[in-house]
Amino acid sequence: MSIDDFKPGEHVAVFAPPISVHRYAIALEDAGFEIRDQLVWLHDQDSGLFLQGSVAIVLARVPPAGTIAENVLKFGTGALNIDACRIPHDDPDIERKKFDSPLGMEHCARDREGERGAGPSPLGRFPANVLHDGSEVVLRPFPDTKGAGGSMPIAKVTGYGTNIGEGSYAYDNSARITFDSGEGSAGRFFKSAGSLADVVDYIQTLISTGSGGPGR
Q1: pTM of the full predicted structure?
Q2: Are 74 and 109 within one domain?
């Protein structure tokens, strides 16, 4: 099989031992593929392919024909389905509401009223490059964390509408905005895939062209 057997913009994912993953990446580049990213699955089991510990995954793509949008419309390939692979969370959404509100002050509202502010997307966190099997051995090094903490200062920001970086800001130390970002193992921020089959399903979903649009 050669690169000519793939459509322009089509992705491939190659599973490799971490110690020699660079060899796989070089071979893909020599064959004409673009190296787009690398992922890793941390596990404590016999994956059926490699020894216990981790599996490296090289994400490569056939060079697209034109822009990603043009390639998707013509061939149905080239995009990453980010929204279908987001990591669920319970963190509160923070919106820019109006300029005289604390959250509006914090996130420079003005003509951006109604836009989202800080915090992960309500659809889920952007998928990270690390996956794990959820086992106790793998999660042990992940610290327990409350995420961003339990509150943030109220700040008034001025002068950022025209020249970014030329404005000023002032903190109101009399009060803080409280929120609950959850707590527990930091492993919750990453995709949990309990088996190699789950990893394969996840990768197949990621490289399918979906409603999430181009992700790279």
Answers
A1: 0.72
A2: no
